[in-house]
């Protein structure tokens, strides 16, 4: 059997809800399994690509698919396979949920109603929280946590779930250094110990540089795709982030230094 | 004690009022809680006033003989569902602020329509439009009770069956959809059942009581409690107590039970805010103490000779 593709797009174009073109002429393919990063500056269509792959947005032209399944035709199959962590500010903090409720949600959302948590579900949720060092927050109200702790809980929600693909939208944006390290380590270990592919949208490749296998560089269209050190090319990086972007070499890896800050929204 | 029971049983007014109290409390603890979770407390007044527009349309269609079968209550329900649909459409991305604006606009549209139609309705009929906003616990009739009970039970069943789904849709619409939940269906189910309940409750017990009981206890409980179930139970309790107190007080002094219940319910929110403030202050004090304790202990346990040593120098 030929190597399956994790994510692939053919001549994809997508609009933002406000009508602007977010992505155009996007064609690429990344093999399965992989730990993949989608990078690019603010407003480059990274989140849009992920949301289109999940069927949350409709392609204007072309197609995108996960594991060979089309985002429009096989939407419900895709959604069964994916565990998704949206940008943190998408989570409504006015609902009095406990940490355990959020993490269990990752499993219960894929069960049929009445979605009762079994012992198995609880064990998986606790183990996921342990991986991001949040297990003693089990009974704590989620809205009272710090931003970094909330992000760790959301990552735990994905780790607790089931399905061969993990998709995370900016899980490191606006988090403290400790949380960032914990999340990166947890994802790295989880990826190496389980048969799971990770697709991570990020404005900053550096924290995950050594874990990532494939990088997709987006600036409304594909700027580059390849292994981390290959795409960290002065020309490509300047095309992506502008003339201030520099490449720095450190212990055999090439990193990019930019002034980009992260999270962006278009609704 | 037995006297009171006998009095209630002998008085159909009181009996209906008590059933009304329980049903309103159910509506508050289900629909009210979720509307507050979603930042949609304003939808309560939006739907109630939209119902007014629907009632006006119904009266107009009847009076002008265009559609004599169109009951004003039907109009009221159709318009409240309209508000729910507009709100739901604006909120499909899961963003609260957009829904709040949609409530405001659809509310203004329905209310304007009501005022517009009032010129074409026979003047004698106009007061009955306003009747959709003023009801009272002690003036419930049997039809009110049947409708209110029906809608409260419907809401209760929906809330029991789809409790988790409603919570998931409220907390993370995008994530729920992306992982296979039919979030849009639950989103609309939640808003439409709430809108129907608000419209029927408003007709039965009056707008003031519905606003107060649906919003204030839920907002109060949400300030203090850390779980969805806790909030829903607390709302039920606050709603029952403030309404019963309203009825009891209205029997001894000349006052509308709804007004008193409304005041008590609103007070519950003020009290909750105060408790929260006090609790936060205690919390901060404790944290400060924990931060300072090592320093304090260090000062207290510092061996004395060291000081004399520095003196010698």
SS field, number of helical segments of chain A: 8
Gap between N and C termini of chain A: 42 Å
Architecture of chain B, according to CATH?
Orthogonal Bundle
The largest sheet of chain A is: 6 strands, mixed
By oligomeric state, this entry counts as heterodimer
* Series of H and E elements of chain B: HHHHHHHHHHHHHH
Query: How big a fraction of the residues of chain B is strand?
Result: under 5%
How do the helices and strands line up, and which of them pair or pack?
The complex is a heterodimer of chains A (267) and B (313).
Chain A: E1 5-15, E2 21-31, E3 35-39, H1 46-53, E4 61-66, E5 69-70, H2 75-81, E6 82-85, H3 99-108, H4 119-131, H5 147-160, E7 165-169, H6 177-193, E8 197-202, E9 214-218, E10 222-226, H7 228-231, H8 234-241, E11 246-250, E12 253-257
Parallel strand pairs in A: 3-8, 3-9, 6-7, 7-8
Antiparallel strand pairs in A: 1-2, 1-4, 4-5, 9-10, 11-12
Chain B: H1 2-10, H2 12-37, H3 42-63, H4 72-90, H5 96-118, H6 126-130, H7 142-161, H8 163-171, H9 173-178, H10 183-205, H11 207-224, H12 228-252, H13 257-301, H14 305-312
Helix pairs in contact in B: 1-2, 2-7, 2-10, 2-11, 2-12, 3-4, 3-5, 3-10, 3-11, 4-5, 4-10, 7-10, 8-10, 10-11, 11-12, 11-13, 12-13
Question: What features would you describe in this structure?
Answer:
The complex is a heterodimer of chains A (267) and B (313). Chain A is an alpha/beta fold and 267 residues long. Chain A has a domain at 5-90 and 165-257: P-loop containing nucleotide triphosphate hydrolases (Rossmann fold, 3-Layer(aba) Sandwich), CATH 3.40.50.300. Chain A contains 8 helices and 12 strands. In chain A, a hairpin with a 5-residue loop joins strand 1 and strand 2 (21-31). The radius of gyration of chain A is 18 Å and the shape is globular. The model of chain A has no long low-confidence stretch (mean pLDDT 91). Chain B is mainly α and 313 residues long. Chain B is 82% helix and 0% strand. The termini of chain B are far apart. The model of chain B has no long low-confidence stretch (mean pLDDT 87). Chains A and B meet through helix 2, strand 6 and helix 3 of A and helix 8, helix 9 and helix 12 of B.
């Amino acid at each position: 059997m030929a190597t399956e593709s994790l994510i692939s797009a053919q001549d994809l174009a997508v609009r933002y809800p406000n009508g602007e073109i977010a992505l155009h002429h996007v064609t690429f393919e990344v093999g399965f399994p992989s730990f993949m990063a989608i990078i690019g500056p603010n407003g480059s269509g990274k989140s849009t690509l992920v949301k289109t792959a999940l069927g949350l947005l409709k392609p204007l032209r072309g197609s995108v698919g996960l594991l060979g399944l089309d985002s429009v035709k096989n939407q419900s199959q895709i959604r069964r396979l994916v565990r998704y962590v949206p940008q943190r500010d998408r989570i409504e903090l006015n609902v009095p949920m406990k940490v355990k409720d959020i993490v269990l949600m990752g499993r219960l959302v894929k069960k049929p109603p009445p979605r009762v948590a079994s012992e198995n579900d609880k064990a998986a949720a606790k183990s996921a929280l342990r991986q991001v060092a949040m297990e003693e927050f089990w009974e704590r109200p989620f809205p009272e946590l710090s931003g970094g702790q909330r992000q760790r809980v959301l990552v735990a929600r994905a780790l607790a779930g089931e399905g061969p693909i993990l998709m995370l939208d900016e899980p490191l944006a606006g988090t403290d250094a400790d949380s960032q390290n914990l999340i990166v380590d947890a994802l790295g270990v989880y990826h190496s110990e389980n048969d799971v592919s990770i697709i991570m949208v990020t404005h900053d490749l550096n924290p995950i540089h050594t874990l990532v296998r494939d990088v997709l560089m987006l600036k409304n269209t594909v700027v580059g795709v390849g292994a981390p050190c290959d795409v960290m090319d002065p020309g490509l990086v300047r095309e992506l982030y502008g003339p201030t972007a520099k490449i720095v070499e450190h212990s055999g890896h090439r990193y990019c230094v930019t002034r980009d800050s992260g999270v962006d929204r278009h609704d | 004690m037995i006297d009171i029971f006998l009095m209630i049983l002998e008085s159909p007014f009181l009996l209906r009022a008590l059933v009304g109290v329980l049903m309103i409390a159910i509506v508050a603890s289900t629909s009210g809680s979720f509307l507050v979770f979603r930042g949609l407390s304003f939808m309560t007044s939006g739907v109630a006033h939209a119902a007014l527009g629907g009632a006006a349309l119904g009266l107009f269609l009847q009076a002008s003989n265009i559609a004599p079968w169109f009951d004003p209550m039907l109009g009221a329900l159709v318009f409240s569902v309209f508000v729910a649909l507009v709100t739901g459409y604006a909120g499909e991305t899961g963003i609260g602020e957009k829904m709040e604006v949609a409530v405001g606009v659809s509310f203004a549209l329905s209310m304007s329509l009501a005022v517009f139609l009032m010129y074409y309705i026979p003047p004698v009929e106009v007061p009955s439009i306003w009747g959709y906003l003023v009801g009272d616990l002690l003036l419930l009739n049997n039809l009110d009770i049947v409708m209110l009970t029906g809608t409260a039970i419907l809401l209760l069943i929906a809330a029991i069956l789809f409790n988790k789904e409603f919570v998931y849709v409220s907390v993370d619409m995008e994530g729920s959809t992306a992982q296979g939940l039919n979030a849009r269906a639950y989103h609309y189910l939640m808003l439409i059942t709430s809108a129907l309940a608000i419209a029927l409750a408003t007709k039965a017990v009056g707008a003031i009581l519905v606003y107060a009981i649906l919003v204030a206890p839920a907002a109060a409980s949400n300030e203090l409690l850390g779980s969805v179930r806790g909030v829903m139970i607390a709302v039920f309790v606050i709603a029952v107590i403030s309404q019963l107190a309203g009825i009891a007080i209205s029997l001894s002094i000349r006052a509308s039970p709804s007004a008193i219940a409304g005041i008590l319910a609103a007070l519950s929110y003020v009290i909750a805010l105060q408790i929260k403030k006090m609790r936060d202050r205690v919390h901060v004090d404790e944290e400060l103490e924990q931060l300072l304790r090592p320093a304090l202990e260090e000062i207290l346990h510092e061996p004395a000779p060291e000081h004399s040593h520095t003196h010698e120098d």
